[in-house]
Amino acid sequence: MPKEPVPTKDAPAPFSGAVDPENHSHLPDFILRSGDGVDFHVHRDILKFASDCFDGMFAIPGGNCDPNDLRRDGKPVLVLPEPEGVLFRLLRISYPADTVAHYTLQRADLDIFVAVYTAARKYQFLRVQRVLKEMLTNSPLLDAQPHRLLAIARLCDFPELSRKAALSTLTTPLSDGVPAFPEMKLVSWEMLARFHKSCGRKAREIALDSIVDRSNSEAQPFWISNADTDQVFAWWQYYGHSSQCTGNCKECWGYRGEGVRRGSKAPVKWFRGHIPRVAAQLRLWPASATAEREAGRVAQAERLIMDACAVCSKHADADLACFARQLAKTIDLSNHRLADEAFR
């Protein structure tokens, strides 16, 4: 006769085998036993609906359990290698939702996410795979733990989420050491470091480019004019500035601060001092949010010069707000291009 072993324990509800008063007419008729000896009392019809693997298995006569023909309480038992936590999360998402929390990703779920997704792929729980991907993509943890979500996305082969998580890492400086979580050991930290540094170099270059006269260039005309008003930015205007604001107009500044030939156009002095500091911040955390925050915020010494200038006191603040948005948009586009190249 088939053996009827005593299991280590039953799984938590709703897989404990206890009679559910709301579904007493739909009793579980199958048992999945985890690799660590926990019995999950499940319904064959739900497994067939959720999993192509189980649908095919139950379609075969005798395809109810493993070769040892284990049974318990009259139910066939199939032993799987996955541990209790992985099977519980896999089956929980396979079953109909009873609360909103059913599809909410918690921090603790990250510890077994890769294992759950791997099991869903192994047993062909196609819907569960889609749900898990959506849960991870829409999780607020993307902003809180972007490095870890990047690693998980790489391990699960979610290229779009990998790029999204990589872009989220740009809001913080690059760490000197590999972050301390298990998944990071399985992916290339050097790849992320190269991406972060590339974005930093490019963001700095874009910021410093704004002190170059490109009024006759079709490539970046917005460095000269306000996109909201179509007027030249206050710091690029020739006339009406105070002498303290313009400084020595014959000593002009060019790309990355190098001096250029006499007669070239250059922004006013306070803006030439402002941009290198913005560029330095972008070099460390090259996110578009950094550009918008730092570009619109000037130092106190520059504020005094602006307030004393007839042109800048009237227009500079509004122009800086517009410039910050334009700079952020340009850097965001640059970061996305680099992410597409690095995380295909």
UniProtKB/TrEMBL annotation:
<feature type="region of interest" description="Disordered">
    <location>
        <begin position="1"/>
        <end position="22"/>
    </location>
</feature>
<protein>
    <recommendedName>
        <fullName>BTB domain-containing protein</fullName>
    </recommendedName>
</protein>
<dbReference type="InterPro" id="IPR000210">
    <property type="entry name" value="BTB/POZ_dom"/>
</dbReference>
<dbReference type="Pfam" id="PF00651">
    <property type="entry name" value="BTB"/>
</dbReference>
<feature type="domain" description="BTB">
    <location>
        <begin position="23"/>
        <end position="138"/>
    </location>
</feature>
<dbReference type="InterPro" id="IPR011333">
    <property type="entry name" value="SKP1/BTB/POZ_sf"/>
</dbReference>
